[in-house]
Structure formats: structure tokens, C-alpha cells
Amino acid sequence: xxxxxxxxxxxxxxxxxxxxxxxxxxxxxxxxxxxxxxxxxxxxxxxxxxxxxxxxxxxxxxxxxxxxxxxxxxxxxxxxxxxxxxxxxxxxxxxxxxxxxxxxxxxxxxxxxxxxxxxxxxxxxxxxxxxxxxxxxxxxxxxxxxxxxxxxxxxxxxxxxxxxxxxxxxxxxxxxxxxxxxxxxxxxxxxxxxxxxxxxxxxxxxxxxxxxxxxxxxxxxxxxxxxxxxxxxxxxxxxxxxxxxxxxxxxxxxxxxxxxxxxxxxxxxxxxxxxxxxxxxxxxxxxxxxxxxxxxxxxxxxxxxxxxxxxxxxxxxxxxxxxxxxxxxxxxxxxxxxxx
Length: 340
What we know:
By secondary structure, the chain is an all-alpha fold. The chain has a single domain (5-330), classed as Arp2/3 complex 21 kDa subunit ARPC3. The protein has twelve helices and two strands, in the order ααββαααααααααα. It has helices spanning 10-32, 48-62, 80-87, 89-107, 115-141, 145-173, 181-213, 215-221, 232-247, 259-268, 278-290, 304-333, and strands spanning 66-68, 73-75. It has a two-stranded antiparallel ribbon with strand order 1-2. Strand 1 and strand 2 (73-75) form a beta hairpin.
């Protein structure tokens, strides 16, 4: 559901950049908390390496599009609920924002002007709204495999439905006449319902596994108090899973268009709209200069080696960026708080 720049007006794109930047700033502040851990959202410093690895796992997972039977469409995980359940909602937003900026700048997946929308639609709608109002209340009553499964499926579907609807609202506010509100909505919501169901099941399976290995990880993220845990075993397992997913499973991704592209094709007759203007030229030119593997392949053409390389390299960059942000937050947390 990565939006391209052509789906937005500069005004809407700029506004959503401001909204998402403000949310990320709050996320950093909440994650850093203060000296006694207040407002840390259950984020323990020992989870910083886990923040990097789980972000890389989501990056790799997003490369695998799965076919939605009978539709000619495909989908991929968003990863918001998965990250929020393991890390806590605020660190999860930082992690997902890191994944999205890497996809945009290095792989030309999602536009630079559209980055604020993508963070909001794929990040805020899941890591904050769906997690806080659906996932957390369900598991807080009783944390077990059944509640984790229920919470995962319902919250992922809700977050994806909300994100898909915001895509429609953003194109409407941008005056994209090729995508009329009624028809676009009628296509976007059902296809993302199906995608959300699959992602919910996948998220539930992963989280139930984490619960069996280290239940304290989920219980800490679902409470207000930090819960120090050892994450070495989980780190090792997800590091291997990330490498396998990025380097091997990515080769078997569905070639069908994703839910957004599928909806656009049936609404406007094309999945790629064109827009002219200095803002679009500047944003597109910047990404063209930074994207060393556009569309997760070598610049000289598609190949299996290119896909695997993009997956592994992208995952490594994600570990460095998300983990690095985590260490910067840790450093900020240790600074003394000025007294009034």
C-alpha cells in the first residue's frame, strides 16, 4: 500500500509529512521517557537490538507479496501490529518509519512526497490506533495464545482498513479525478480486508511463537512498565528468519499487483499516474539519485540475484538505521532532565 507521489497534491503531501513528523517526534520522546522510565511505553533498553532485527524482518516480509485467490491481486504484510506487540507502540512507529524511508530512498518503493502519507497509513493507523484501541485491550485482560491470535487478526484488519480508507481520502483531498471516491473506496476496502486477514494470521503465528519462547517480551510491551528480558534467543531466531526471507523466500513473491495497484487499475485503467510540476520533479529526481536498486533489482534489469541482494542489503541497512535510532534514544534517556 505504498503510495506514489503522483497520487497526491503537494499540499496534501506536505501536510501529511508534518503530521507524521510530529508523530515520530512524540514517539522518540515517549520511547526515551525519563530517568524513572515514565512514558517509556514498556520499552526496555535491552530491546534495542531487537528493534533493529524486527525492523529488518518486517522489511524482508514486505518483499513477499502473497496472492489473493480469485482476484488477480496480491498483498504483503505491513508489520505495524507485529512491531507494536514486540517493541511497544511508540518504538514500533519509529521502526516502521525507518523501514519506509529505506524502501523509499534506496529502492524507490513509495514516493518521497508520499512518505508522510505512507507513515500515517501504514504506521500510525496500526502501531498507535489499532494497537492501542484493539490489540492492547484484548491481550491486557489475559495474555495467551488465543487472545494473541484474536487480537492480531482483528487489529491488523482494522488498521489496514483504516489505512486503505485514508489512501482514498488523501487522493480525494488531492483532487485526483482519475480515482473517484465511490468506486475507489468500493475496491480498496474489500481487497485490503482480504489482505488484512492473511497478515493477521501471519502476525498471530509469529507473535504466538514469541510468546512461547519469551512471553515477557509481549507482556512488557502490553503494559506501561518496562519489563527487562533477555532477547538473545529471539534475536538469533529472527536474524536467521530475516536472512531466509530476504534472500530466498523473496524470490517466490507473487507477480500480481498489490491491493492499491489492483484498485487503481480497475478504477483508472492504470496503476501509474503521471503528474508534472517542480515538486514532483524534485522529489522524483532526489529518489532517482539515491535509489541504487530501484524496484528491488539491479539497475540493468530484473534477476533473481538482484532480488536476493536487495533483500539482504536492505535488511542490513534497516538493522543499522533502526538499531542506530534505538541507541540514540538510549543516549537521550540517560541525559539528566532539567528541573523547573
